[in-house]
Each structure stands twice: as C-alpha cells, then as structure tokens.
Amino acid sequence: MTVETKNQPYLFQAKVADKQLECVGTAKDGQWLVLKDPVTGEKREIYDAISGAAVCSLKHGDTEILSQMNDFAKQSAYTFCANFSNTAAEELAEFMCSKSEGAFSSAMYVCSGSEANEQAMRYAMQYHIEKGDRKRYKFISRVNAYHGYLVGALSIGDNPMKPLLKKMLLSDDQVPKISRLMPYRDQGDLTEEQYCKKLLDNLEETIVSTGQDEVAAVILETVSGSSIGNSVPPKGYLDGVKALCDKYGALLILDEVMCGLGRCGYPFTFMDPEFGLTAGGPDLLTFGKTVGAGIVPLSGVMVAPKVVNAIREGSGVVMGYQTYHSHYLNCSVGLAVQKKIYRDNLIENVREVGAYTKAALKAALKDSKVAGDVRGAGNFISVELVKDKATKESFAPELKMHEVLNQKTFAKGIHFMCIPGTNGYEYVDDKLVMNGAHLTMAPAFGFTKTDADLMVKVIAETFAEIEKEYL
Ligand SMILES: Cc1ncc(COP(=O)(O)O)c(C=O)c1O
C-alpha cells in the first residue's frame, strides 16, 4: 500500500513540507528548463543561469554526449577498483593530467565533491604516513568556506548548520580556521599587496600556533563558491600559501569543485595569470560538478608527482576502496564531456563571454545604490546586495533578501543561485542569523552574448526594483 501524502513529496530532500517545482525537460537550446507546478500542472520555461549548481558545463540534454552513452553502457562491465582498472577512468585521468602543464601525474574519481575533499584529506594523511611522519593530522581551512556535507568535508568547511552538527564532526583542534578571503569587505584601505600579506601572516600564525609539525594540509577554494560569492584572491596570495605549506611541511589542497575545470576560464583555476600560482600546482586538487556536466555523478582528485611518488616509493598502495571509485560509465561520459569542451573551445568562450558579462554587469549596476560588488572570474560571477554602498551595510536578515532576489529574478524568467550569509552567519539566542545576500551565475560554458545580455537585463531590473521598494 502506498502512503497518501496529498501535496507532500515522496522524495525526502530539501523542502519536504510542500512539493517543489518539478523539472520535466529542457527547452530552446538546452539552457532552458521546463518546470511543472505539481499542484496546478502549469508549465513554464526558465533560463538556467546557474546550470543547476554550477554543474552543467554543457547545455542540458547535450545530444552528442547522450547519443554516445548507449555505446558506453553496452561496453561497460562493473569492476571493483581493488581488483581491476578500467580503460575509461585511465584515459580520463591521462587526459586531465595532460591539461595540467605537468602539475599532476595522476587522478582518481568518486561521485561527489564532498567525497573528493575527504579523499584528498586521506591522501594527505597517507602521504605523511608514507614519509614516516605520523604526527600530522590537522587540516587548516577558511572561515565561511564550503567543502561539502560529509563529516570530514563539513568539518573543514564552515556551513551555518555546522554548529548544530558539531558533536558528530572533527574536533575544532583538528580543523583550525584562518580568516575568510574577501577583498570587498576586508581589504579596507590596504593595498592589494598589504591585504595579501595580512592573509598570509594569519595563515602562518595559525600554522605555528596550532603546531607546525601537526598540520597535514591547508585546504582552500581557489575562487570561493557558494558561501560568500566568488571572491578572487589577491595577486601573490596562492604563491604565498604554497610557500608557507612548503616551509612547514604541509600539503596544499585546492578545492576547485565549483570554480574549476574551465568555469573560471582556464583548465584549472590556479592557472589564472591574474591571481593564480606562478609556477606548478598544488599538491592535491579536488574537482567535481562540471566534469560530468550533470549527466553523471562524477568528481575526483588530481594528484601531484610529489604525492604519487611518495606512495609509489612507499607502500605502493593507495589506502581505501569504495564501490563506485572510478566508475566506468561515469568516467566514459566524463571523458566525452572533457573532449567536447576542448574540441569546441568552450573554456575560451567562458573567458571571453564571461569578461563581457562582468563588464556589462558593472556598467549596468554602476549607479545602483544596492549593488555593492560585482566579482568573480570566467562565467562564475556574483553580485552582492547591500543596503548602503558607502558603509557596505547589508539589509536586515529578517527581510530575507536572498528570497527577494530569487523571487524577482525567477519571475523574470531566470534561475540564479541567491544565497544568504555573504557577510557571515551567527547564532543569536539559539536562532540562526544570516548576514548579507548575493546572487551568483554560472551558466553552461557555451553561453552567448545574447544570454549574457538577458542575465544582465534581469539583474539590473531586479536591483532597480529592490532599490525602489526597500530603501
Ligand atoms: C567548493 C565546493 N567544494 C565541495 C562541494 C561539495 O560538492 P558536492 O555537493 O558534489 O558534494 C561544493 C558544492 O557546492 C563546493 O562548492
């Protein structure tokens, strides 16, 4: 017997009090979703400016990839990674390493960004163990960072739900925090160089005070993602972090799950000539989302020769196996997606049309009293909403301005990611208070200037309405 739920969903995720809008297909060129109201049955088309959650590197329903999937499925046999490798995973790893300019010599695959980050944490631990150093067990990360929702990933992150789940997470001692990276709010009168030094001093003080010989790794988002909206590091920052990691024997893990693999206009985002590493790469890098274009669940870790060699020359065996590590069908699709991205120069398109979009947004919002900051890289761009541009004060949290942003832009036919807590969160009398709000875009890599114009128009109209209604 099926339990009657009336207007409540059977699916137990996100909003469970009411049924959510259901996606029933795609429209136009594949960047548009068809959404059905589960109660009225009414359908509408909406431009997916955030490609789910910055996931769809290709447009939804890419016919070329979908038509190949049948063949991939026919060729696939499930194998367990402890016993056998598979051609698709091996080829994808080689393909991705070949785009890293020598930074990485290996890769592995899991199914989510959270898993990828935990995998990278285990690799860091194993690296030190193989080198005969068993004292290192701490992971330094930033305040307001997001690294996923598994126990380890949530521990290194700083999600507003974290305080409630604290008892099941790693101890604070094991995951020391450094300050957030947010030039818009924190640079003040400092030059870029001075701000960079301030951040690096904070990292060095944290490494030393927590115990420099206990730090396994420092883990950072190269360009911050959902939590504070696409803050880009100051020039020299990543080189400085890498130098400190090397100085104190910790590994550097860059989390590029949301910002990487072309989203910010380069094969890996640490390669950006403006703010990236000037030589080499991190020791480990996590990726996810766009690698499988939302068609299959796929994520993973890129591994630098230093880490690979330590394990090859040591035990020769990577610790730990999971059933769906480097799954054949997922990796086949990932490889086809990656090849298409490079064949069609889609990363260049992200860079060019992304720069056009950011410039157009800045111009359109120049006189807005409530558009505090336009920031980001590639087509991963956020606009921070403020009540007062001069003081950068946010609107009162109880106004839930992220919902206002969402409703207004959605009513105009575009789906962005509209997030609260841009300026942090706190618990006041046991109640969660999220300060600030921002809107983020991350469209498919093949988006056009026409798409950009549409997004800019809708954002400009939305901010103008908010200015009129809320100031
Ligand atoms: C920077 C970053 N790391 C990790 C994750 C977790 O990825 P997943 O949701 O696939 O577990 C996310 C997800 O948004 C992310 O933005």
UniProtKB/TrEMBL annotation:
One of its GO terms (molecular function) is transaminase activity. It comes from the Eukaryota. The keyword Nucleus does not apply. Keywords: Pyridoxal phosphate. CDD domains: OAT_like. SUPFAM superfamilies: PLP-dependent transferases. GO terms for cellular component: cytosol. It holds the Pfam family Aminotran_3. PANTHER family: AMINOTRANSFERASE, AMINOTRANSFERASE CLASS-III. Belongs to the class-III pyridoxal-phosphate-dependent aminotransferase family. This is Aminotransferase. It comes from Ogataea philodendri.
